[in-house]
Design a protein that fits this description.
heterodimer; A: nine-stranded mixed β-sheet; 6 helices; B: globular; binds flavin-adenine dinucleotide; flavoprotein (chain B); electron transport (chain B)
């Protein structure tokens, strides 16, 4: 069984981004970049499926500028076998990314496509579901447990009220949540090995996918700042403030 | 312009999220229809009928829709989509699961987690864990969007819309196996006026008892940080944050929570924030209206005694 894992390069989760002075976008110049944490969990799950003898090959794919090759190498250092880079300098909406991934999926015929549930920059939470729809595959989003049982996959999902378990035939799309696994660290020998693993580069035109413009970002602004608060010195003072000043209890 | 709103419900009850998404639809303007897809969902449909501003409630009542599976629920919405300029749902687990499938099949982009409607085609949504707000103009002929319900006030229930049965039955390859829902007599996180949240500082699941006591005194919901959920102190559905629930109650009390960017993303629009933490440097104090530097194991029992 081949597993395809689409991954994204994002600003590191520990960095607080700032908006550019001209409100055209966030300023990402010179910020620390990383593999999106959810994508890291997706790669880890695929690699574990391979280690368990269920997956035969783990292929990672990323859409973006030349720089995303750094994250593809990271994913290979974590255990992916090879990588596909779809090179574009344009900022694409999730639907356009899903269309490019569909072209890759049609070529690769993976039985399972594992995504992170969202990327921590755009916070869209769309791409996996969109690929599933375009490829007419069933899906299990927000997975906290994944089991392959023959030609089916059984997935426990984190939903608003608790947990839900679904089963569906492969091929299918899974998007992963935080508690699915704890990703390993890449070892130095594996980082070296990853440098020699195959990485194919395609352009959008190579894949014969036509993309269109769907939206214009008119501006990007900082959120309203909260007024500075005060420190209280005791539980009594806190209760008094909440009752008399804030009138919330 | 006619807007379709996907109802959020558990067949018996319409969730308050729906009234908030209808509020977003009202801000867009036009006729508003609500789709209640479920099984034996007449109760939920009746509640939807009363939502102010709604003119029609479409009811797709079939065992096939009992568990709100994205695969066929998405196709059902597509089968109804021709007449609509906008398709909205809450940014709930069902909405987030289903609407991207609808958008993709309609060949339009989805606008996720809308917090403000600027016009019929322009919306504001948070990005980067809420550290920036993007104003986005859609160029698509249909707008598909999820709405962050904490950003809208629920519409009232003064209406009486027409009920229309939808017979379209679409099967899914996805099969429902089981579900474990957290049972609680406390308010839901999304609707609570007051939330008491605990973090890693709580130390254990048992220790959450003192927070639950506080919550019950205040009529509050209980929330948690990711660290508290990861450690197994409380169930996953209590997680507040960028990747959990986004809440904006009148009062949010953060106890033993440091205030990581990802946690703040889920609660910093609360009206009043209280932080109780023994570390004076904890970033949570930067967003708190009232900070108390204290050991929570002293402060919370003392609070419980005073209230
Ligand atoms: C991709 C991604 C997504 C994430 N999504 C979320 C999310 O949705 N929600 C979320 O919450 N986090 C999320 N996180 C995790 C986040 O980065 C933090 O790790 C997490 O919020 C920390 O939880 P905490 O504040 O409970 O724990 P800690 O950061 O460990 O803080 C514990 C606090 O408790 C205090 N404390 C300890 N003992 C006591 C005591 N006896 N009395 C008083 N105070 C005490 C300490 O001083 C400390 O400030 C995410 C992270 C990533 C990478």
């Amino acid at each position: 069984m081949k597993v395809l894992v689409p991954v994204k390069r994002v600003v590191d989760a520990n960095v607080k981004v700032r908006v550019k002075a001209d409100h055209s976008n966030v300023d990402t110049a010179n910020l620390k970049m990383a593999l999106n944490p959810f994508c890291e969990i997706a790669v880890e799950e695929a690699v574990r499926l391979k280690e368990a003898g269920i997956a035969t090959e783990v292929v990672v794919v990323s859409v973006g500028s030349k720089a995303v090759q750094e994250q593809l190498r990271t994913a290979m250092a974590l255990g992916a076998d090879r990588a596909i880079h779809i090179e574009t300098d344009e900022e694409l909406v999730p639907l356009s990314i899903a269309k490019l991934l569909l072209a890759v999926q049609q070529k690769e015929q993976a039985q399972l496509v594992v995504f992170g549930k969202q990327s921590i920059d755009g916070d869209n939470n769309q791409t996996g579901q969109m690929l599933a729809a375009l490829a007419d595959m069933p899906q299990a989003t927000f997975a906290s447990e994944v089991k392959v049982e023959g030609d089916n996959i059984v997935v426990t999902r984190e939903i608003d009220g608790g947990l839900q378990t679904l089963t569906m035939p492969l091929p299918a799309v899974v998007t992963v949540d935080l508690r699915l696994n704890e990703p390993r660290y890449a070892s130095l020998p594996n980082i070296m090995k990853a440098k020699r693993k195959p990485l194919d580069v395609h352009s959008v035109t190579d894949l014969a996918v036509t993309l269109k413009a769907h939206q214009t970002v008119l501006k990007v602004t900082p959120p309203a700042e909260r007024q500075a608060g005060i420190m209280v010195s005791s539980v009594e003072e806190l209760v008094e403030k909440l009752k008399i000043e804030a009138k919330v209890i | 312009m006619t807007i379709l709103v996907l109802a959020e419900h558990d067949n018996a009850h319409l969730k308050a999220d729906t009234a908030k998404v209808v509020a977003a639809a009202s801000a867009i303007g036009g006729d508003i229809h609500v789709l209640v897809a479920g099984h034996q969902c007449a109760e939920a449909a009746n509640a939807a009928k009363a939502l102010t501003g709604v003119t029609k409630v479409l009811v797709a009542d079939s065992a096939l829709y009992a568990n709100h599976l994205a695969e066929n629920l998405g196709k059902l919405i597509i089968s109804l989509s021709t007449d609509y300029s906008h398709i909205l749902s809450a940014a709930s687990s069902v909405g987030k699961d289903t609407l991207p499938r609808v958008a993709a099949l309609l060949d339009v982009a989805q606008i996720s987690e809308v917090i403000s409607v600027e016009s019929a085609d322009t919306f504001i949504r948070p990005i980067y864990a809420g550290n920036a707000l993007a104003t986005v103009q859609s160029l698509d002929d249909k707008k598909v969007m999820t709405v962050r319900s904490s950003a809208f006030d629920a519409v009232a229930s003064t209406g009486s819309a027409e009920l229309v049965a939808i017979d379209t039955a679409i099967d899914a390859r996805t099969q429902f196996v089981s579900q474990t829902l957290t049972e609680s007599a406390r308010p839901e996180l999304g609707n609570a006026g007051i939330i008491v949240s605990g973090g890693r500082g709580m130390g254990s699941g048992e220790n959450f008892a003192i927070l639950e006591q506080l919550a019950d005194k205040l009529g509050a919901a209980v929330g948690a940080s990711r660290a508290a959920v990861d450690a197994g102190f409380v169930p996953n559905d209590l997680q507040v944050g960028q990747t959990g629930k986004i809440v904006a109650p009148d009062l949010y009390i953060a106890v033993g929570i440091s205030g990581a960017i990802q946690h703040l993303a889920g609660m910093k629009d609360s009206k009043v924030i209280v932080a109780i933490n023994k570390d004076p440097e904890a970033p949570i104090f930067q967003v708190a209206d009232y900070g108390l530097e204290a050991d929570l194991f002293d402060a919370i029992p003392a609070l419980n005694n005073l209230l």
